[in-house]
Write a structure and sequence with these properties.
By secondary structure, this protein is an alpha+beta fold. The protein folds into three domains: 230 residues, Phosphoenolpyruvate Carboxykinase, domain 1; 238 residues, Phosphoenolpyruvate Carboxykinase, domain 3, CATH 3.90.228.20; 79 residues, Phosphoenolpyruvate Carboxykinase, domain 2. The chain is 28% helix and 22% strand. It contains 17 helices and 32 strands. The strands form seven sheets. Strands 1, 2, 5, 6, 7, 8, 9, 10 and 11 form a nine-stranded mixed sheet that branches. Strands 15-13-14-26-30-27 form a six-stranded mixed sheet, with helices on both faces. A hairpin with a 2-residue loop joins β31 and β32. α3 runs antiparallel to α6, α12 packs across α17 and α16 runs antiparallel to α17. The longest helix has 17 residues. Bound molecules: phosphoenolpyruvate, sodium ion (NA) and manganese (II) ion. Manganese (II) ion binds next to loops. The site of sodium ion has 4 residues, from loops.
C-alpha cells in the first residue's frame, strides 16, 4: 500500500498545472496532475492503486464495514456483494452529459455543449474541496490488453471505493500502465468525485453522491471530469466516457472506430470462424445476442464483448476488433435462466450486484430471473417487499458487474491484443413495423446509411405512428464524442481504407416486428441464430465460397425464398411474408423523415448519405 500525505506529494511538485494536455503534443506529467487534483479537491489521503487482489479485498472489507456493500450468502453466491445506491443515483444522466469541444459544431446538434473555458470554471468551482474527509484513489487502467496495439490507457482519480472495485472488474487496473505512460504513451486523465465532502467527525452515508451532476468530456485534450454520481455509466470512466466518447474522438483523428457494439465469434458446421460486431440501442437484447446459444445444429457462438468494440484497419487488410473492457456491466431485470442462461452462469459467483433485491437466504433476485417471485424480499431500496407490493423489487436499471473471463462462452481469443478480423457488422433497432427481420446492405455506403438511420418506435402503442420514430444512429446517440454526422463521414472513410475482399458486410436486423394483432412475428432469443446463419452464408457468398442467397428489395437484400432455415420453428407463411414486407407508402413517408433528420446536421451530413436517400426513394418508386 502506497499512501502518501497530500502535503508531501504537493510539495514534491513544483509546477503543478491544470493546463489541458494537447492531443498530440507533450502530455501532462501524471504526478503533477495528481498533485493539482489533490490541491483542488483536498482529500485526507491519496492511495495509488495497483489492481491487486489484496487491494480489492481491502476495499471490499472497508465497504462492508461502511454498509455500502452487503455480503451475499457464501454458498449460494460465493464472493459476491449487493450495493444499494442512493435512490436518485441509478442511471446515466444524459441531460448533464457534456461534450465541450472548442467549437460548438464539433459537438453537433445531438450533444450538450458548453464552451470549454466556461465549463472549466464551473468544474473548478464544484470540485474545490469536494474530496474533503475522503480518500482519493489514483487508478491506472488499460482499455484492452495492457500494451496492446489497439489498446489505450488512462488514469481515473476517484473518491469512491465502489468505483475502484468496479474498475478492477471492468478494466485492466495495473501499475504497468504507469510505466507505459512514463515511456511516453498517450493517456487519458479521468477525474471523478461523488461530490460529498465529509465534515470533521461526520458519519458517512452508504452511497454518497450529490444532487448536482456533471459528466464532462473535453475531446480535444482527451479529458474527463465527472461529479456527483457513483453510478456505473457516470462514474466508471473507462466505459462510456472513455471507451466511447473520448475514444470516438481519438478514433476520428487516428483512422479507427470506437463503437457501441457487441462482438461474437461464430463457428459454422464446416468449422469456419467468423466475427460479427453488432450495434443495438440500449434495451434491444445486445447482451442476449452476445451470449447467443444457437438452436440450429452444428453452429457455435462464442462471446468476446457485450457493449463496446474498437476496430482498426489491420496490416493484413482486415478490420481488426477488440473488446476494450474486461467485464460486463449488464442490466439484471429480464436476465433469467430462460432468456440468457449463459449470463446466469456467468454471475454465479464473484459478482457485484447493484440495486437488485435481496432474498431471505442471502441471495439476489430481480424481475425475470425466475418466473415466480419469492414470497418475501428486501427490495432495492432496502424495504420489505412481497409480490403484492405493487412496485418493482429490483430497480429496472439494476446491474451485475462481473469479469468477462467468468462467461462460460467466452472465446479463447477475447484477449488477443491484435484483435479479431470482423466479417459482418449488424445494426438493429426495435421496430414494430416496416423494417424487415434482416436485410443486407448493397454495399459499404448503403450500410453506413442503415447505421445512420437506425430507429425505434417511441412506445409499443405508437405502432404505425411514423412521426414518433426515435433515431439512434449507430446506437451512439448518447455516446458519440463529436458531431454525429462527422461520425458517418468517418465510417465512409474507414471503409474505403479496408480491402474490398475483406471489408465487413453490413446488415440490418429487427427482432421486434409485430403483426396487425400486436403479436411478435419472430420468436427471437436462440432462434436469432437462424438469422446469424444467413448473415454468415452471405459473407461466404461475398468471398465466392457459395452462391448469393438473396433477393433485392428497395431497402436491401433479403433472404431468397427458402434461404432462411425455419426447420423446427412455427412461423407461418403469412407471418414470414409479414416479417419481410417492405410497404411502399410507409417507407416513402419514412424517407421524408430521414430527410428531416439529415437536415438537422446541415452540411455535416455526407453527400454520399444524401445520395443513398435519393437511391432509396428511386427504388421505392420503382417497386
Ligand atoms: C451504463 O449506463 O453504464 C451503461 C452500460 O449503459 P447502457 O446499458 O445503456 O449501455
Ligand atoms: Na443506463
Ligand atoms: Mn451500452
Amino acid at each position: 500500500r502506497r499512501t502518501r500525505l497530500v502535503a508531501e506529494l504537493v510539495s514534491d511538485v513544483t509546477a503543478a498545472s491544470t493546463a489541458p494536455a494537447a492531443p498530440h503534443g507533450p502530455q501532462q506529467d501524471v504526478r503533477a496532475w495528481v498533485a493539482s487534483v489533490a490541491e483542488l479537491t483536498q482529500p485526507d489521503e491519496i492511495v495509488w492503486c495497483d489492481g491487486s487482489a489484496e487491494e480489492k479485498q481491502r476495499l471490499i472489507d472497508q465497504m462492508l464495514a461502511a454498509g455500502t456493500l452487503v455480503r451475499l450468502d457464501e454458498e449460494k453466491r460465493p464472493g459476491s456483494y449487493l450495493a444499494r445506491s442512493d435512490p436518485d443515483d441509478v442511471a446515466r444522466v444524459e441531460s448533464r452529459t457534456f461534450i465541450c469541444s472548442e467549437r460548438e459544431e464539433d459537438a453537433g446538434p445531438t450533444n450538450n455543449w458548453v464552451a470549454p473555458a466556461a465549463m472549466r470554471a464551473e468544474l473548478e468551482d464544484v470540485f474545490a474541496g469536494s474530496m474533503r474527509g475522503r480518500t482519493m484513489y489514483v487508478v491506472p487502467f488499460s482499455m484492452g490488453p495492457v500494451g496492446g496495439p489497439i489498446s489505450q490507457v488512462g488514469i481515473e482519480i476517484t473518491d469512491s471505493p465502489y468505483v475502484v472495485v468496479s474498475l478492477h472488474v471492468m478494466t485492466r487496473v495495473s501499475d504497468e500502465v504507469l510505466r507505459l505512460i512514463d515511456a511516453g504513451q498517450e493517456w487519458v486523465p479521468a477525474l471523478h468525485s461523488v461530490g460529498a465532502p465529509l465534515a470533521d467527525g461526520a458519519t458517512d452515508v452508504p452511497w454518497p453522491c450529490n444532487e448536482t451532476k456533471y459528466i464532462v468530456h473535453f475531446p480535444e485534450s482527451r479529458e474527463i471530469w465527472s461529479y456527483g454520481s457513483g453510478y456505473g455509466g457516470n462514474a466508471l470512466l473507462g466505459k462510456k466516457c472513455f471507451a466511447l466518447r473520448i475514444a470516438s474522438a481519438m478514433a476520428r483523428d487516428d483512422g479507427w472506430l470506437a463503437e457501441h457494439m457487441l462482438l461474437i465469434r461464430i463457428t459454422s458446421p464446416e468449422q469456419r470462424q467468423y466475427h460479427l460486431a453488432a450495434a443495438f440501442p440500449s434495451a434491444c437484447g445486445k447482451t442476449n445476442l452476445a451470449m447467443l446459444q444457437p438452436t440450429i445444429p452444428g453452429w457455435k457462438v462464442e462471446t468476446l464483448g457485450d457493449d463496446i468494440v474498437w476496430m482498426r484497419p489491420g496490416p493484413d487488410g482486415t478490420l481488426r476488433a477488440i473488446n476494450p473492457e474486461a467485464g460486463f456491466f449488464g442490466v439484471a431485470p429480464g436476465t433469467g435462466v430462460d432468456t440468457n442462461p449463459t449470463a446466469v452462469a456467468t454471475f454465479d459467483r464473484d459478482t457485484i450486484f447493484t440495486n437488485v433485491a435481496l432474498t431471505d437466504d442471502g441471495d439476489v433476485w430481480w424481475e425475470g430471473l425466475t418466473p415466480e417471485p419469492p414470497a418475501h424480499l428486501i427490495d432495492w431500496r432496502g424495504n420489505d417487499w412481497t409480490p403484492d407490493s405493487g412496485t418493482p423489487a429490483a430497480h429496472p436499471n439494476s446491474r451485475f458487474t462481473v469479469a468477462a473471463a467468468q462467461c462460460p462462452t467466452i472465446a479463447d481469443t477475447w484477449e488477443d491484443p491484435a484483435g479479431v478480423p470482423v466479417d459482418a457488422i449488424v445494426f438493429g433497432g426495435r421496430r414494430a413495423t416496416n423494417v424487415p427481420l434482416v436485410a443486407q446492405s448493397f454495399g459499404w455506403e448503403h450500410g453506413v446509411f442503415m447505421g445512420a438511420t437506425i430507429s425505434s418506435e417511441r412506445t409499443a402503442a405508437a405502432e404505425g405512428a411514423l412521426g414518433e420514430l426515435r433515431r439512434d444512429p449507430f446506437a451512439m446517440l448518447p455516446f458519440c464524442g463529436y458531431n454525429m454526422a462527422d461520425h458517418w463521414a468517418h465510417w465512409l472513410e474507414v471503409g474505403a481504407g479496408v480491402d474490398e475482399s475483406r471489408r465487413p458486410r453490413i446488415f440490418q436486423v429487427n427482432w421486434f416486428r409485430k403483426g396487425d394483432d400486436g403479436r411478435f412475428l419472430w420468436p427471437g432469443f436462440g432462434e436469432n441464430s437462424r438469422v446469424v446463419e444467413w448473415i454468415v452464408r452471405q459473407v461466404e457468398a461475398g468471398r465466392g465460397l457459395r452462391d448469393d442467397a438473396s433477393v433485392a428489395s428497395p431497402v436491401g437484400k433479403l433472404p431468397a425464398p427458402g434461404a432462411l432455415d425455419l426447420d423446427g420453428i412455427d412461423v407461418s407463411d403469412d407471418d414470414l411474408a409479414a416479417l419481410f414486407e417492405v410497404p411502399t407508402e410507409p417507407w416513402l413517408a419514412e424517407a421524408d423523415l430521414t430527410e428531416e433528420f439529415f437536415a438537422q446536421f446541415g452540411d455535416h451530413t455526407p453527400a454520399e448519405l444524401r445520395a443513398q436517400l435519393d437511391a432509396l426513394r428511386e427504388r421505392l418508386a420503382g417497386s
